[in-house]
């Protein structure tokens, strides 16, 4: 199943409206009490996250009546919300502000991620940059495109295949168990450059545009990865867990490698000792 074009456009408009109403007015304008930590000082939530998610939850009831809404902040408040995803006929997965640490510290590298699933399969994804008001949109079977107001959407392709030693990529090594981090850092020096933006939205945007060769993750929060993986796949890339499974938004644990092709994925898994 693919979404109707008008529904896709309504979802894009909804995200842009939520950013204008709830996110941008609070950027670099948060009081100390408007920022709180969840699991650690790196895992933050702000009043803008909560307000934007509530805004989109209300709006999607009109756009996709009956859809289950899986929001990062609603799952944080009640993890049982996530149990609805696998069986939902239609679900909207939303990260209202991806890169909250950046947002809370006044850095403009943050975004909004939205994905729509049908019976557990991602059929539409959106990676939106509120600062520049542009977005990467992807549709199952319909490719991945860069879009902005007044411009014709431009089809995207991942980078040409390069050997690992010539690759640029993203990996948040600090999220892996402490005992594994020295091995990961050793693997990082075998590539040209491995870093992180603290923002899955922009990392996947870079991947889909062909600016980096891989995204390596630890953990599978669906609001971080469902849209980005579809964007990479529809742009000609490859996605596979370290244990060989294909990615699905219903999976909750695992190490995911998103790369330009399967051969590079194997090089990455070997370089970081992830198999």
Short description:
The protein is of the alpha+beta class and 275 residues long. It has helices spanning 5-23, 47-63, 72-77, 100-104, 181-188, 200-208, 222-234, 262-272, and strands spanning 35-40, 43-46, 68-71, 90-98, 111-118, 121-129, 134-139, 143-147, 154-155, 168-170, 193-195, 214-216, 238-241, 256-259.
Secondary structure: elements and pairs:
Elements: H1 5-23, E1 35-40, E2 43-46, H2 47-63, E3 68-71, H3 72-77, E4 90-98, H4 100-104, E5 111-118, E6 121-129, E7 134-139, E8 143-147, E9 154-155, E10 168-170, H5 181-188, E11 193-195, H6 200-208, E12 214-216, H7 222-234, E13 238-241, E14 256-259, H8 262-272
Parallel strand pairs: 3-4, 10-11, 10-12
Antiparallel strand pairs: 1-2, 4-5, 5-6, 6-7, 7-8, 8-9, 12-14, 13-14
Helix pairs in contact: 1-2, 6-7
What does this structure look like?
This protein is of the alpha+beta class and 275 residues long. The protein folds into two domains: 5-155, Fructose-1,6-Bisphosphatase, subunit A, domain 1 (Fructose-1,6-Bisphosphatase, Chain A, domain 1); 164-272, 3-Layer(aba) Sandwich (D-Maltodextrin-Binding Protein, domain 2). It is 32% helix and 25% strand. The chain contains eight helices and 14 strands. The protein has helices at 5-23, 47-63, 72-77, 100-104, 181-188, 200-208, 222-234, 262-272; strands at residues 35-40, 43-46, 68-71, 90-98, 111-118, 121-129, 134-139, 143-147, 154-155, 168-170, 193-195, 214-216, 238-241, 256-259. The strands form three sheets. It has a seven-stranded mixed β-sheet with strand order 3-4-5-6-7-8-9, sandwiched between helices. Helix 1 runs antiparallel to helix 2 (47-63) and helix 6 (200-208) runs parallel beside helix 7.
């Amino acid at each position: 199943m693919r979404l109707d074009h008008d529904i896709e456009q309504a979802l894009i408009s909804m995200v842009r409206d939520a950013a204008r109403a709830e996110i941008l007015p609070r950027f670099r304008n948060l009081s100390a009490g408007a920022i709180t930590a969840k699991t650690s000082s790196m895992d933050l939530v702000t009043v803008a996250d909560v307000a934007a998610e509530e805004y989109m939850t209300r709006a999607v009831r009109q756009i996709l009546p009956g859809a289950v809404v899986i929001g990062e902040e609603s799952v944080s408040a009640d993890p049982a919300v996530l149990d609805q995803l696998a069986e939902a006929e239609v679900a909207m997965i939303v990260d209202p502000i991806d890169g909250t640490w950046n947002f809370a510290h006044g850095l403009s590298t943050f975004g909004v991620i939205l994905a729509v699933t049908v019976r557990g399969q991602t059929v539409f994804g959106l990676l939106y940059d509120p600062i520049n008001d542009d977005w990467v949109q992807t549709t199952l079977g319909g490719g991945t495109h860069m879009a902005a107001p007044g411009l014709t959407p431009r089809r995207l392709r991942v980078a040409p295949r390069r050997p690992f030693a010539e690759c640029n990529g993203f990996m948040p090594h600090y999220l892996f168990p402490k005992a594994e981090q020295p091995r990961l850092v050793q693997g990082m020096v075998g590539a040209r450059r491995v870093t992180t933006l603290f923002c899955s939205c922009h990392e996947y945007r870079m991947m889909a545009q062909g600016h980096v060769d891989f995204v390596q993750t630890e953990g599978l929060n669906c609001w971080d990865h469902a849209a980005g993986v579809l964007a990479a796949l529809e742009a000609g890339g490859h996605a596979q867990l370290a244990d060989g499974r294909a990615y699905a938004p219903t999976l909750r644990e695992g190490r995911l490698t998103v790369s330009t092709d399967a051969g590079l994925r194997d090089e990455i898994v070997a370089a970081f000792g992830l198999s």
